Structures are given as C-alpha cells and as structure tokens.
Amino acid sequence: MVYKYYDEKPKRLEKLSKDAQEDLLYDLINAFSVIKSPTESALFVQDLLTQNEARVLSKRLRIAKLLLQGKSYEEIKTELHNSFATIAKVGYWLKRSGEGFRVVVKKLPQKTKTKHWSEYTRWDKAKRQYPSFLWPDVLLEEVIKSANKKEKERLRKVLKNLDQKSGIHKKMQELIDEEYREKASAKKRAQLRAR
C-alpha cells in the first residue's frame, strides 16, 4: 500500500466556501456554453479531462442516449460493457429529472452510415451516372464528406493527446508523491534528532 504524505493538506472542494464553489461551477458551465464547434469542444475536453474521465462521461452520455431510445439494461450492458449499477444510476436520474440529458441527446447529430448500393435513390444513381451535368450536387456532397473526415481526424488526434496526457499526469503524480515522501521523512528525521 502506498501512503501519500503531505506537509500541508490541500484544500478540498468541499472546504471552499459556498460562494467559491458556485463561482467555480459558474465558470465551468459558461466554458461549455461559449464553445462553438466540435473542434473547440474536443480541444477543451482534451485540456480539461484525463482519458479515463472523458471515457466515463462519454459512457454515461451514451447510456442516457440508449435508455432514451428504449434500449434495455441488458442491451446497453452488452454494447458498452458497463455494470448494471452504472446503467441504473443514469436510468434513475432520467426518471427523476434528466432534463439536461434529454436536451443534449436531442441535439446530438446522428451518425451517418454508408449506404448499401440498393439503398440509393434514383436521384443518387442519376448523379453518379451523369456527374458532369450534376457536378454542383456531387461537389457539395464531397465537401460535406471531407469535412466530416477532417472532424473525425481531429477527434482521433484529441484522443491520442488524452492518452499522452494521462501518462504525463500519472508521472507528475508520482513525482509529487515522491517529493512529499522525501519532505515527510526529512521532517520525521528532524523530529527524531530534536528529541
């Protein structure tokens, strides 16, 4: 078991005044509200959260989304590999209140999937058959597809950075713990010499 020794105990959030806690929450809520694009959101999440925190919050949001779509606990557990307890907590909150989840889930963009060749409409087939006549539509579609690819690439980059950040965070914590252990043992040695 590893013990952490600190000369001064850090102030915990609960020990801050109620006004200070409200001020912190106000800043966080406003930080989310000023974000204008998925890229800005990804950068903010990268800087704000560790990889594990981002994973936990992402899963909670997905659980809420699947529950609102009418999926069963068993289906969600199979898809996300979460415990029933986590799913039940999110489900309980959705039943009790959950307005925030409902608003956000409604506004989430739908993930697009590629169509099977039989799912194309006559218009889609005509655009592919006569691209020189219908080039504006084809060009616009390609611009939209490439924009989505760029967003996905940016998100992949953020995930990679989160992974690196978690490693750096862990190393920093080890260094800080080592420093405090050294200070604590030096303090104990000084107390023993003083006796």
Main attributes of the structure:
single chain; 195 residues; mainly alpha; 73% helix
Largest sheet: none
Strand proportion: under 5%
Number of strands: 0
**What is Rg?**
25 Å
Share in helix: over 70%
**Terminal-residue CA separation:** 29 Å
Q: Which class best fits the helix and strand makeup?
A: mainly alpha
Average pLDDT works out at 78
Order of helices and strands: HHHHHHHH
Instruction: Characterize the overall form.
Output: elongated
Stretches where pLDDT falls below 50 for ≥5 residues? none
Number of helices: 8
Q: Your description of this structure?
A:
It is a single chain. The chain has helices spanning 18-33, 38-48, 51-68, 73-80, 84-96, 99-107, 122-129, 135-194. It is elongated and about 95 Å long. Helix content is 73%, strand content 0%. Helix 2 (38-48) runs parallel beside helix 8 (135-194) and helix 3 (51-68) crosses helix 5 (84-96). It has eight helices and no strands. With 195 residues, it is mainly α. The chain has a domain at 115-195.
